[in-house]
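My current task is to audit a protein record that another person submitted. Alongside the sequence sits a line of tokens, each denoting a local backbone shape. Where you disagree with what is written, explain briefly why. This is what I was given:
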Amino acid sequence: MTQSETNRLREIEVFVQVVEAQGFSAAARRLRMTPSAVSKLIARLEERLGVSLVRRSTRRLQVTPEGAAFYEAGMRILSEVAAAEREAAAGAAPRGRLRVNSNVPFGHHWLIPLLPKFQTLYPDVAVDIALTDRVVDLIEERADLAIRTGPLKAPNLIARKLIQTPMSVVAAPSYLHAHGTPRKPADLERHRLLGFCFSRIFEGWPFLDEEGRPIVVQPSGGSLISDGEAMRLAALAGAGIARLAHWHLRADIEAGRLVPLLEDYNPGDEETFYAVYVGHGRYLPARVRAFLDFLVEEINLD
């Protein structure tokens, strides 16, 4: 760690104490510093950041909105440093609470079934799993790791590839009996296409036309669903036509509960699933690294 990084960490420690002690003098006593030294350090921090973190008065200290946000971020940083020190002192053995965020289908089909095996291998790690198809901010949700699909836009995220799978368009036999079977992509305009009720990176279903040129069909006429697992269940119930990752549908297709559609027009696009986290790999907590390595080893399409 450079001298500049050490100084910044010290600034964070002092600022957190100022907020929690509600004053410079009280913080100075806790830190065994002089009030003027604390005041100068906070002033230097505000100058470097270009914002006012606290408002001073003779009676009380008031934290600005920017100061409140910096305090929350500083608490997370200090907590991570303390956790890293504890793990280093314990020989970096995986331990502690691991918070994982995943989309619903991946959680149902992979994470939950694999949880007992991971617990057996790492009994000192407690895993919290939150399932949602909504893309969440890892820092805001205090998640150590998330499962994501598609291009990763956040520059602070580091990703490890887990699986890559083709996409399939399917419907239940009951739906096809009632509404007919589409023979080409244009036929989908007369059908109920199940869509998601949240914004996604890619809009529309890609196909190839009869000349082999790429086209896109916009899902319409059907219900909007909150997550992929609910969409699979809606398709099984005959509510409409769905487009999901093939591994999510494979058992239903093999059992005849869902029927693949328009395979001759399938462009062969695939969906890639990543495990993503914030930070730099060499500073990754042992519990996170253990879970990442475990997922890479255990998850495969066979």
About this structure: Residues 73 and 140 are 10 Å apart (CA to CA). The domain at 92-302 is CATH 3.40.190.290 (D-Maltodextrin-Binding Protein; domain 2). The mean pLDDT is 84.
